[in-house]
Design a protein that fits this description.
The complex is a heterodimer of chains A (about 200) and B (about 100). With about 200 residues, chain A is an all-alpha fold. In chain A, about 75% of the residues lie in helices and about 0% in strands. The relative contact order of chain B is 0.12. Classes of the chains: A mainly alpha (about 200), B mainly alpha (about 100).
Chain lengths: ~200, ~100
């Protein structure tokens, strides 16, 4: 999204929020329309479950609606929206253990999948994205937010409510773990790419 | 940018279902109709903390205790404990029922 497009969206968000705070609940529909795609994408990156991603996105929108008066308005509305959604997703993942390959077994499963199925590139990519959920939560969160925000560290840190340096360090550790365990599947040993 | 970056940058997230926006707005209307959440009963927490503090002091200042503070009437402690405890129990019961 270009800078001016983001500013236009923020203008629209601010006028929707003003209208909602003035008593026009239906004005929130504009916010949901504009951000439904990114919100579902963020929740899906955390959960890798279509149904659950929609549930969490809905829960986040309701939470945002109920807390609109707490938004200070000193940053983009979407920054706050994603921070709330991130909290909703992390909170749900803490309560609900979704099935995932343990980190220790990731390398073995990746190797097995590579040999057995001669996976299609798309399936291989999906396996790599699934593998992010195997990371310890603080590394998983940094990896999810960094790539969701198109590799923008500052925005990832804003969504997580952590200093940039902390997110950078978590990201480095998380990416390192994935690189090490998925190197065979990614084919990086063969073509010499490194992390 | 390496291969891992390229894969993780791409998204295979599903598109929103056609009913998603309507579903969110219905959930919001339900939330609006629901009564406002109860304020956390800080007064009960404070009352319970006072009871705990007084009980500790009474324990220290008992007949063989090292401190020489005036003994506190047990009935006052009991009343405060019942008040604080019942406030907390009521709050969590109501919140549990609402969930």
């Amino acid at each position: 999204m270009s800078g001016s497009e983001a500013e236009d969206r923020d203008e629209l968000d601010r006028s929707s929020v003003d209208a909602v705070l003035a008593g026009r609940t239906e004005a929130f529909e504009g916010v949901v329309h504009r951000w439904q795609g990114p919100m579902i994408e963020l929740a899906y990156r955390f959960t890798r479950d279509r149904g659950l991603a929609e549930d969490l996105a809905q829960e986040a929108f309701v939470k945002v609606f109920r807390s609109l008066r707490q938004w200070r308005g000193d940053g983009r509305f979407s920054t706050w929206l994603f921070a709330v959604a991130t909290n909703v997703c992390r909170s749900r993942l803490r309560k609900k253990n979704l099935p995932t390959v343990p980190l220790e077994a990731l390398e073995e499963v990746a190797g097995w999948r590579r040999e057995v199925g001669d996976l299609e590139a798309r399936e291989r990519a999906a396996f790599v994205r699934d593998a992010v959920r195997s990371l310890p939560s603080r590394y998983r969160d940094a990896v999810v937010l960094f790539y969701f925000h198109d590799m923008d560290l500052r925005r990832a840190a804003e969504s997580l409510g952590l200093p940039e340096g902390t997110v950078k360090s978590h990201l480095h550790r998380g990416r390192g773990m994935l690189q090490a365990r998925l190197a065979g599947l990614l084919g990086e040993r063969e073509n010499g790419e490194t992390g | 940018m390496n291969r891992l970056d390229r894969i993780l940058l791409e998204s295979d997230a599903p598109a929103a279902s056609p009913r998603f926006v309507a579903g969110v707005m219905e959930a919001i209307e339900r939330a609006e109709r629901a009564p406002a959440p109860l304020a956390f009963p800080w007064w009960a927490v404070v009352a319970t903390a006072i009871v705990g503090l007084l009980a500790a002091l009474v324990g220290l200042a008992g007949p063989e205790g090292a401190l020489s503070v005036a003994p506190v009437d047990g009935r006052i402690l009991l009343a405060l404990a019942v008040l604080g405890g019942s406030g907390l129990v009521s709050y969590f019961t109501v919140e549990w029922i609402r969930d």
